[in-house]
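INFO worker-7 received task bundle
INFO bundle size: 2
INFO processing item 0
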Amino acid sequence: MGDLPSINDLLKKSKGVKSAPVSGSAVNDVAGKFSKKMGEVAVKEKEREAMRLAASLNLPHIDLDKFPISQEALRQMPREDAERLETVCFYYTTEEFRLGTVNPENEEVKERLKSMEENLGSESGLYVISQHSFDKVLEQYNRLPVIKPISKDVEVKPEDLEKVKASVSDFSSFQALLKKTSTTDLVTLLLGVAMKLDASDLHVEAESDRIVVRVRLDGILQEAATLEKEVYKQLVSRIKLFSALKINITDKPQDGRFTIKLTGGDIDVRVSTIPTVYGESIVMRLLDQSRKGLNFEQLGLYGDAFEKLKRQIERPNGMVITTGPTGSGKTTTLYAILEVLDKPGVKIITLEDPVEYKLVGINQSQIDHSKNYTFATGLRSILRQDPDIVMVGEIRDLETADVAIQAALTGHLLFSTIHTNNAAGTIPRFLSMGVKPFLLSPALNAVIGQRLVRRVCEKCKQKIELAAEMKKRVEEIINNMPPAVQEATKKKDLIFYEGKGCEACNQLGFKGRIGIYEIFMMNPAVEQMILSSQVSEYEIEKAAIADGMVTMAQDGVLKSLEGVTTLEEVFRVIE
């Protein structure tokens, strides 16, 4: 085939064109128009292809070439994610949003749509767009103004905190100080008081006629002070500003965080807001990153419970599960175990939601539902990292349970948590998820059931006389203890204590917390129950007690006899 004719040759043959040579500028002009026309034809064909794809999948199609897209819509999908998924958000309001994609059959695109629905709480729609539409929208990212992120590190002067700590001795002095504090200094005051009182959480709640500040001390919420309604909105806005939350959104939950930079160590503050009838409720959780790891005795694990646990965590493989309600100290127990096992030559990886405390020498990973990085998918990835020990924050579904069990059966030591009332309830919970019985029994080494009870304040502790009914109840619990424990207990005088309340404990009678535990280990009787599918929580607990398990109630009574906690506190958390 000969050479293609030049533009000049083509123009010579065109009607109405003189045979004189065409100038270079004219040639370029014609070539440009020709190229533009061909480009338009190609764009239209691509648009028709996108329409055909949309029709085949029963999805709507949209041409975004001239569609007005707001900056807020673009910001819903980070540019790197948009390029990777070839997907953009082209419409967004607080009630609904729409995604346009070149790849509607991509599973990750569908997952992103679902996660955005959950996070934004809005109605959604998925549209098919052409590559041309996608490229046009991508150009708009270049015109987005750069927003400097708000610093999540809050500089609080140590001298300001010390001033707060010196000025506050109890709740009444806190209330008096609030009245003299400006709105600007209010956040510093609230955080300073929370740290002075060793509070784990700080709550600001709007009621019909007042604003209440409450602090969680040793697991119990205490009303600390009230605020004037005039400063409430300013306080909420300031906390949101620190936490990089949207100040103008008051009708949807939001989550954020900031860090207080102190010379003695950082304090991470996790912030949660939710709309309520009278305004937004704000909870700030304080996580002291300078805290030292707790040993087993400080946790309350000693004696028979400690010996049993020690044997189980020294095994090379299998599952050890902690169980109990939210706030019962399960993760803290697992952290203490990991710190004991963290030795040279051992690789430990955790998968958490969220990572609360940083552990030296341990690889900690945080799940991200928006990127489909869940406990199940994350655990699969972790196992490809060749770990010796794995900790999974929680087992809550069959997929995660199956992967965890396979890991335990293939040479890994795996720790995790599950929500049940006691240790014996763990096996029925696993089976109700759909776990295969013949895999569960060889994989499960032990289950730790636990609760947290408040410690009696050492500075105001005093002996008490038990009422006849309470004494009878205690004697029944002691009589059901394993023989060796029962014999040792009966040699002691039945003396119990309580705190009368003092300045050191804010007149509460308690200071600090300790765990009460029960440790159930797999044994032949329970294994046979699992395999025969005749599983009941009652029968499993009965078999565990026959095998020597000290129950949480019994452990609590033993700690009460030692003067560590009170009987009322033990019965409060186990009933």
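INFO item 0 finished
INFO processing item 1
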Amino acid sequence: MCGITGIYSTSNLGQDPVKDVNRAVMALYRRGPDCQQVKHLGKCILGHARLSIIDLSTNASQPLTDASERYTIAFNGEFFNYKEHRIRLLEKGYRFLTNSDTEVFLALYITYGEKCLSMINGFFAVAIYDSLHQTLLVARDRYGEKPLYFYQSNGELYFASELKSLLSYPIPRQIDRSSLFGYFVHNYVPGNDSIIENVKKLPPGGKIKASPQGITIENWYEIPGWLAEKTSPQEASQQLYSLLDDAVKLRLESDVRLGCFLSGGVDSSIIAYLAKQHKSNLMTFNIGFPDQPYFDESRFAQEVSKHIGTQHTTFGIGNHALLETVYDVLEYIDEPFADSSAIPVNILSRETRKLVTVALSGDGADELFGGYRKHLAHARAIRFQPYRNALALLTPFLKLFPKSRNSFFSDKVRQLEKFITGLSLSADKRYQRWASISSPEEVSKLLLPPINSQSYLKFINELTLPLTKHETIGNINAADLILVLPGDMLPKVDRMSMSRSLEVRLPFLDYRVVEFSMKLPDYLKINRNQRKWILQQAFGKFLPSEVFTRPKKGFEVPLAYWLKHDLNHLINGENFSKDFIESQELFSYSAIDSLKKQLQSSQLGDTPAKLWALIVFQHWYKKYNPHL
């Protein structure tokens, strides 16, 4: 787990860009605190910041060049099935200089060319330079677990693991207005654009090929759509157990200390249970919030740990420490990202890193197997369509009750109102609404004209096109693989763990598990009111029954309370002043003022999340260039 960056030019590079690459590498220091190196390779300069996980020796430091000195690799990620490929390459006569997975990756490329990408079970962003043919291959893993930003202009390519690193290069900084629109719809920048105009994210499963003849972008892997196959619950359960068990086993390979996140929910409990079968002294970790009992679920993790027999640690985090982390998160974010659950993920990563360098996590299961509230809502929407007009009659009564995420009752009222509103929409628009924080109409009122939402709307409409033909949980999961996973969940895990130099591995995103999930009939995912039903069938007898029956809560923080009290100064300070907002020429001050007033009402809805998106954006705006 590391960070990579580099430059390629179709003409020759001079010495001056080396300084830029050095700055870009140092911007990745938290991703790779163990070693930072740069290599000038003619038309290409590669930089690498290393977090040592496999083969801790300096021989395995990167950029790494093969014995012939023709090929050089800079690799961010892990290659979990590298040992089996190493054995095969040794049988072919290949001689290795290290024990690293990086060198095996390079050897596979030397032997098989670009076809080697499909042989990798793991996550990665990688750059490989061939000095003989003066070509560069840059590639990203299947589902976008590892980030890769790039910019190209006039025959030059710049790339980096993080936006802050890419901005070390002489790149124009103009806000992408369509990405800004998408950001305020979802609270993250969706798709393959970035907040900076002409800076792109390499698509999951994408590759860049650069040569003296030019630069091209293609896909080496196509994210699977949903196509259900006939199977029985028994057969599917057995197959899932086998696939996930092997995925966990592969991800236990490490030359440093390793443990598991354990929240006590379905997904992390399954991963911890499987890991314990292969690692007798498994350590598990979670955080508790003793000052916020409504958000504290640490007791559930402790019960699961006791049941499966792990060495468990709960990190108790008080209000003061929790609030301090808010500023750490704001400072580390280099592209606006306003999923507030990033805050507890950051804390968990910080505390876990004090004991281990690698942690397994249950992330990804919700998107694959129908674990979110919205998935159950979609299943109910399919059943309740005949009753939508009758249910709509409840809307005036619901307006009489408080709606927020701060209590069980008010959250249920909020969900019910959102559900009834969604019933009146077509299947594709329903998904778009339930996958967002703000509606396009609300964002249009927030942003000043001219509003450019063309690229975002094209992306979201193409994404949801299959739902216009078949509203199924499988098609919703397929959309989540393209929107939610690479836009929200994976960046959250990557950024927050890397900010603490912790590697997090996600067994549910083993490509075999993902492709298996895309072949499951809907009833194996949501059965009546049971979400992720197939997971209960496969693992229910190994874990406490409460794991599968208690309500899903999520990794939430008391955002509304904070904004009214401890963090109120963030929405009443300079960044929200009328003069500053008008100077930006981006937002309607009256729309922001309305949100601030809404915060004081009982009808909160998602107002705290909308204000948090503004706080994050304003902090980013001032840090990365006050004159954007």
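INFO item 1 finished
INFO post-check item 1: Residues 233-250 form the longest helix (18 residues).
INFO post-check item 1: The two ends are 32 Å apart (CA to CA).
INFO worker-7 idle
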